[in-house]
Every structure is written in structure tokens, then in C-alpha cells.
Amino acid sequence: MSELKPPPGLRAPGKRLWASVLGSYVLTPTELETLRQACGTADEVNRLEKALKTLDNLTVEGSTGQEKGHPLLAELRAHRQLLDRLIASLNIPDRDEEVGLRPGQHHAQVAANARWKIRGVS
């Protein structure tokens, strides 16, 4: 377990993510940088969610007068995807794994499990 302090400027969501990962795992310097980026992104996701809650309407008028989704919705979706990718790139093992799987390996495992479950083999 690591005693590294969270990077300065992190807010509560980022600090929680930092503590939850480093409370259980020892990371390489490269992984620490990825975690730092993930924690900052977690804070940004939180800020975007709060901003969306203050809006009266989730749609805006487009350039030709059409109704379209508020730009914050797309930003929030993009930030959530980025956070998911950053966390996945850390290869943190699931509770029943000793070593984490790379994202491609995890996808292959899910596909194989689905294939065998469909055929009635468990």
C-alpha cells in the first residue's frame, strides 16, 4: 500500500479515486501519471454533472432553429468515456483476479463467457 499524497488541486471525487486505488495497489510511475489524469477527469465529470443539474432544459436551439442536446451532455459523455479508458488502462484486477487484464483481454474474456453461456455451458 502506498502513502503517496494526492496531487494538489484534486477535489473530493479525484481524492477518493486516488485513495481507493493506492490503498490497494502499488503503481509504477507511468501508472501513477495515468491515475493522476483519471483523478482529474473524475473531478471534471463531477463538475459537469453539477452544471447539468442547474439547467432548466437539456436542449438548446441549433443554428437553424432546430432543437438539439445541450453541449454539456456531449462533454459529460466524452469525459465519462475518457475516465473509463484511463481506469481500464491501469489494468487493475477484479476481486477474483490476481493480475488485471488489458482492455482487449477483458473484452475477449467477456465475449468468450457470453458465447459459452449462450450454448448452455457454464
How would you describe what is shown here?
With 122 residues, the chain is mostly helical. The protein has a domain at 12-90. 58% of the residues lie in helices and 5% in strands. The protein is built from 4 helices and 2 strands; from the N terminus they run H-H-E-E-H-H. The chain has a two-stranded antiparallel ribbon. Strand 1 (59-61) and strand 2 (67-69) form a beta hairpin. Helix 1 (12-22) packs antiparallel against helix 2 (29-53) and helix 2 packs antiparallel against helix 3. It starts with 11 loop residues before the first helix and ends with a helix. The mean pLDDT is 86.
Summarize the structure.
This protein is mainly alpha-helical.
Q: Order of strands side by side in the largest beta sheet?
A: 1-2
Overall 3D form: flat
Q: Name the beta content range.
A: under 5%
Q: Characterize the largest beta sheet: strand count, sense, and whether it forms a barrel.
A: 2 strands, antiparallel
Mean of residue pLDDT values: 86
Protein structure class: mainly alpha
- The amount of helix comes to 55-70%
Spell out the helices and strands N to C. Answer: HHEEHH
Taking Cα atoms only, what radius of gyration do you get, to the nearest Å?
19 Å
